[in-house]
Amino acid sequence: MIRDANPRGTFDPPGHRPDAAPLERRSEHWYDAHPQGFTSADRETTTVLFGGATTLHDRLIESGLKGLGYQARALPCPDTESLRVGKEFGNRGQCNPTYFTVGNLLRYLIALRDEQGLSTERIVRDYAFVTAGACGPCRFGMYATEYRKALRDAGFEGFRVMTFQNSGNLWQRSSGGTGLALTPRFFVTLLKAIVAADVLVAFGYRTRPYERVAGSTDAALSQCRDIVASALAAGKSVVRALHWSRRVLQDIEVDRLRPKPKVSVIGEFWAMTTEGDGNYRLQRFLESEGAECEVQPVAAFVLYGVWQIEHDTRERMRLLGTTGGALRRRLAAAAAGRWALQTMFSVFARAVGLEGFHLPNMGELARVSRAHYAIELRGGEGHMEVGKFIQASEGNKAHLVLSVKPFGCMPSSGVSDGVQALVTARHTNTDFLPIETTGDGAVNVYSRVQMALF
Description:
It contains 16 helices and eight strands. By secondary structure, the protein is of the alpha/beta class. The protein has three domains: 40-178, Rossmann fold; 185-260, no CATH class; 261-297 and 359-454, Rossmann fold (3-Layer(aba) Sandwich). A four-stranded parallel sheet has the order 2-1-3-4. The protein has a four-stranded parallel sheet with strand order 6-5-7-8, with helices on both faces. Strand 7 (400-406), helix 15 and strand 8 (431-437) form a beta-alpha-beta unit.
C-alpha cells in the first residue's frame, strides 16, 4: 500500500521545513502621497487661496479669515481661459467644475511665477489651496487628486491642496499646532460672512431688474460689500454693518410695476452659484432678457448638511431602539445649530431690508420629495432639486425653474434629472428646463432659455 507522503494535501517546495516560520507577504498599495503640513507657525507666511462661490461670498470670506489672523486670498471668478488651462493639464472626462476650478488655480500660480517673478519653490512654500470635498457619485469630490495631478504637470510639485472633508488633511495636528484653529469663533465668523453675502446677493437679484438707473444696484452693492468686509476684517458687528448697508440700498430708485417673469435657478451647487463663464453668466443673461432671478443661498447647503445629521441620527435611534445617550446629545446639537443658522439668516435679512426671504424648510423639502426620490441619496443636491421644483410649482413661486448642471455631473444630470420627467408630469403649474453647461456652446443654451421664457 502506498502511503501519502503529504497527508495535509498541500505542496511543499524543495527545502521546505515544516517547523519554519511562514513567509510574510507585503503588498505595496498605491496612495496619493502629498504634503499637507499647515501649522500655526505657517499662518503669518502662508497665503491660503480659495474660491468657488460668488465674488461677493469669496470677498467676505476673505475678509473674515483675515480678521482671524490668516493670510487669505480669494481667487478671481473662473472664465473660459481657466477652462482651457484646466483641460490642458487635467485628465480626460472630468466634470465642468473640475476643469474651471483647477484651471483657475493654475492660472493664478502661473501668473505668480511668470509675471511676478516668484520662484516655484517659494510658491510651493508660501501658498496653499483650500477647497471642499463632495460626496456620493460626484467626481468633483475626488478633484483634490485632480488638483495635485494638474499641479505636478504644471511644475508645482508639492503644492498643498487641503480639503475640508478629510479630517486627516486640513484639520491634522502636528507638533507646531493646527493650521486652522477650529474654534467657535472660526465657524461663527465663516457663517457670518456666508449669510451676509447671501442676503446681499438676494437683495441684488430682487432689485436689479426693477432699477430705474442702470447700474445703480451694482454700485450700491459694491459699497455694501466694502462696509461688511471692513466689519469682518476688524471683528466688528456685521449686523450694524448691514444696517449701514441698508441706508445705501434704500437710495436705489426702482419701479416695481414692471411685469417680469420669475425664474428660479436651481441645480448642481457650483453651476448654479458661480456668476462667470462656468454657467455662461446665466443670471445676467436672464436679467437682460427681462426676467427676475431667484438664486439659492449658500447657507441652504449648510442647512442641508445639518438636516442630514438630524435625519441620520433619528434613523439610528429608531433602528437601535434607543432615545438616550450620545445620540440624543448629537441630535440636540444639530437642532441647536439649525436654529442658530436660521436665526442668523433672519436677523441679517431684516437688517439689510430683505423682506419675505428665508432659508428653505428642510423637513418640508424632504416630505414633498420622498414620494418621488429617496431622500437617503446624497449625491449633489440630493432630493432638494426635486423638492424645490415641487414647492415652486405648487406654491406658484416661479414661472420657470431652471436646473443648471455641469457637463459630466453624474448625481445632478444622471440622478436628479432622471426623476424630474415624472415630477414635471404631475406638477404642471411651472415650466421646467434643465440645461447642461460645458464652457462652450453658449448660443445653444441661450436659445433654449429664450424659448422657455417666451
